[in-house]
Amino acid sequence: MLLKTVLIRLITTAVTLFGVAVVVFTLVRVAPGNPIAMMLPPGATEADIENLKALYGFDKSLPQQFVIWLGGVLQGDFGTSITLRQPVDQLVLGRLPATLELSLMALLIAVALGGIAAVIGARKRGSGTEVGVDLVSGAVLSIPDFLWGLVFVLIFGVLWPVLSISGRVDPRLDIDFTTNFYVFEGLLRGRFDVVGSTLAHMLMPAMSLALPLAAMIAQLLKQNLKEVLVQDYTTLARVRGFGETAVILREALRNAALPTLTLVGVQFTFLIGGTVIVERLFAYEGLGNMAIDAVINRDLPLIQGIVLLFAALFIVINLIVDLSYTLLNPRLRHG
Amino acid sequence: MTSNSHLTRRGFMGASVALTALLASGSGLLAEGGKALTIAYNLPVQSWDPTTGPSAVNPALQSIFLAVFDRYIAQGPDLSFGPGLLTEWGFSEDKTKITMTVREGVKWHNGDDFTPEDIVWSLERAGNPETGNPMQFVWGKIGNYVIDGNVITADVLAFEPALFKWMAFLTAFVLPKKYYEEVGAEGFEKAPVGTGPYMVDAFEQGAYVRLKAFPDYWGDAPAFETVTVKFVTDAASRVAEVESGNSDITTNIPYEEYDRLIAKDGLSGEAVPVTDIGMIFLNDIDVMLDKNVRLAAHHAINKQLIIDRLLRGYGVPISTLEVPGYAAYDDSIQVEYDPEKAKDLLAASGYSTDNPVKFTIQTTRGFKPKDYEMIQAVVGMWRKVGIEAEIEVYEIAKHYELRAADTLAPAAFYNWGNSIGDPSTSTGFSMFGPSPHAVWDSADLVEKIGPLFVEPDEDKRIAGYKAVSKYIAEEGYVIPLLQYVMPVVFASNVTVTPYTSGDLLPQAVGQA
After folding, report:
1. Which end of chain B is less packed: N or C, by CB atoms within 10 Å?
2. Is A171–B134 a contact, with Cβ atoms under 8 angstroms apart?
3. Which processes are annotated in GO (biological process) (chain B) (predicted)?
């Protein structure tokens, strides 16, 4: 059953990615602005312009360009970035770890903050504390992530400069890692200077991304907890002598967490999308920052590579969420 | 229940202290004192080949390239030209040959000797259309190089009066022949080698480049052993970088922030006019074919007021595309702010505030300081004399596309840089119809500018461009607005030599 589900999802994934490839390839070419116009020298003649077009493969028809590009993609060649002059796959995969680490850290912070707030709100339901949790989460949710970023820059970057404002790691550090997963590889290699520096650089952008999601988690999880806490089995747990906190943590949380898990899965993909602006603000060298530069410079091969990777990421994350939901929910597992 | 399955209060405190210590170990990033310098720069280096691709023609990236590579001919802070990797240069009397004397005793960063072959290889590569040098149209005008000792001669295939000025301009960098041929384009991107005052020590694309002083540099040793250039594209973050002390220097920040920062203890600033101008291109279509409308649109703009109110006084009003310091600048050419004259001109064509002339003006928003706001102000001034302009905002990429296809609106705001100050690279290419960068394409200008591109007599060439500038002002073919001022903020323990070209060179930063 699970295998069949996975197989069907893999087939739909391939179809979806092909659709994304067609759409992004067409869109970036019909959108205003082209890279050749941006690099035309002042004295360029028609022949010079044609030479430049030929050099970058823009002299062929749109279908021809697509077939050439898709043929390359199927063989693992995503083309060469016009501005960065390096293979697109290397560039995109090189930046992916930075964005993944940032997104994961934001997710962890969001789950931790949202979870704690939800438990506190559910534990103190009906009291002023619950109202406080609702008010704070509502206020946090109403402020977009990039504004949180500016607030953090002001507080922890300027007024009380304890965190790094820009970049991903201290430029003074020598890093010769095999992967670009600075936190994970740093931990494995015992390079705690790199881990510490990366976390210090990551904290503000991760917090900016995490806060709105944390507020969403707090609201949803608290509501689900409140519903579960009036169920018979929680009453039974109280009869058995468990305190209210223990009832929430040991009995109610697991069941109440299922809808939250779905939310987290869906929101995680949006969170990765949200890195675009936040990475720019903090000069964090992830995929989002690279995507903005690619769009500004009309670096078509790079835009295509980034969008395809984002699409693949979204699909994979959704697949993982669906599968984990199936595993965690007994009704779906045995259905 | 076992105790190790729960987080105890002591355990929690211990974990908190450990995490705090870990973060603290990575957060001590205040700009280093002594021999290290940190610059928060507004644009990331995209490629380390300064001769090919779009980054090679991006004026803002030249500062970083100039720290690592040398040009054939160097340029001083005031746009003057001086010896670079060439110590002497010139055309033959009949302009059919050039002679270049190559500097001796120069080393590449990898220890190889710099040779005249490097110069010839670099020039031949630049002139080859297949290498993708955007300025191939210049470098292809010389060829048939002959090396004799440290002197190179070459044939002039097509005369280019500004050839040696181009040797201090975009893509005019010398690359190492032997090393480049060994490692190829991809290898060079990973480990670039130049002859400049700094070597690339570490580079994280999109994040930073760490430069180390080159001990065998042929020129004066730079003041700082290590320079870290952080690529911080967001202006607010750059302000925070320098305000917090994380960086020693930053540039291209809003003028409001510049004024605020330099008033603070420990920070200083330099704001000098640079070779970058704001202008309104007029297209030879629709109502712009009416000379009265064009001139009225120019006379109606109070440029000084715009500079004072929107740019806090940081700017210089201009009437031609040549600014002070350019070879063909002529301060006698002025188009005064005169709204009454504008009204009279419009009236002569049947327009008034009750019956305004209508057209579209295109502009970017946020690409240059207060670009959109400036155009709003211009449109407001126009409205008072009888011009009703509709603003259309577009991205800079669309501007390039429309300009190359000659389909811009009747009016379009743009900026134009010309760090060598030659009239051919300002008035010439921006107003010469066949150029893909020109917008006004009338035959009269083609006839006037065309011969100047090949005029061998330098005095006659410069006089010719001055005459063209005067003619353009009289005909109202373009509306030059202002010369930009580049703000640089820096810690008070360093000194910065501002360059009129707009470059912020690490080697021009000293210790106070």
Report:
1. N
2. no
3. peptide transport
For residue B371, is pLDDT > 70? yes
Separation CA B102–CA B120 (nearest Å): 10
Residue A335 has pLDDT above 90, yes or no: no
CA–CA distance, B347 with B326 (Å, rounded to integer): 36
Higher local confidence (pLDDT), A74 or B16? A74
pLDDT band, residue B27 (cuts 50/70/90): very low
> Which one, of A316, A324, A267, A309, lies nearest residue A97 by Cα?
A309
pLDDT digit string (tens) for B50-64? Answer: 999 888 888 889 999
Distance between A56 CA and the closest CA of chain B, angstroms: 9
Mutate to test the interface with A, among B1, B29, B135 (most CBs of A within 10 A): B29
A274 with A145: CB under 8 angstroms? yes
User: CA B230, A168, A152 angle in degrees (round to 5)?
Assistant: 90
Interatomic CA distance for residues A120 and A161, integer angstroms: 31
- Does A164 sit within 8 Å of B246, measured CB to CB? yes
Which residues of chain A neighbour B189 with C-beta distances below 8 Å?
85-86
Phi then psi dihedrals of residue A86, to 5 deg = -135, 160
Interface of B with A in 76-135 (CB under 8 A): 129-130, 132, 134-135
Q: Spell out the domain ranges in chain B.
A: 69-176, 183-271+487-511, 273-485
Residue B51 to chain A, least CA–CA distance (Å)? 12
What integer pLDDT is reported at residue B366 of this predicted model?
Answer: 86
pLDDT digits (tens, 9 = 90+) for B193-210: 999 999 999 998 889 999
Average pLDDT over residues B114-132: 94
Average pLDDT over residues B441-459: 96
Q: Which two tokens stand for residue B439?
A: 């917008």
Residue numbers in A near B233 (CB within 8 A)? 280, 283, 289, 292-293
ipTM of the complex: 0.79
Q: Check whether B21 has a pLDDT greater than 70.
A: no
Residues 216-235 on B with a CB inside 8 Å of A are 228, 230-234
Give the residue from chain B lying closest to A45, CA to CA.
B435
Tokens encoding A104: 């994961």
Closest CA to A48 of B55, B134, B56: B134
Which of the pair, A75 or B68, is modelled with greater confidence?
Answer: B68
Contact B23 A170 (CB under 8 A): no
Round to whole Å and give the CA distance between B243 and B249.
10
Min Cα–Cα distance to chain A from B209, Å? 8
B208/B41 Cα distance (integer angstroms)? 9
- Could you tell me how far CA B505 lies from the centroid of its own chain? 13
Nearest CA in chain A to B425: A42
* The CATH number, out of the four listed (3.40.50.10840, 3.40.190.10, 3.50.50.60, 3.40.50.300), of the domain defined by the range B183-271+487-511: 3.40.190.10
Q: What is the pLDDT of residue A273?
A: 81
Options 3.40.50.300, 3.40.50.460, 3.90.76.10, 3.40.190.10; CATH of B69-176: 3.90.76.10
Q: At what angle do helices A192-228 and A88-123 cross, to 10 degrees?
A: 40
C-alpha B270/C-alpha B247 separation (Å) is 16
Percent of chain B at pLDDT > 70 equals: 93
What are B132-142's pLDDT values in tens digits? 888 888 999 99
pLDDT band at A331 (very low <50, low <70, confident <90, very high): low
Q: What is the pLDDT of residue B154?
A: 98
- CB contacts of B237 in chain A (<8 Å) are 153, 165-166, 281-283
User: Which residue in the set B130, B206, B228 is minimally distant from A171, CB to CB?
Assistant: B228
CATH number, domain B273-485, options 3.30.1380.10, 3.10.105.10, 3.40.109.10, 3.30.930.10: 3.10.105.10
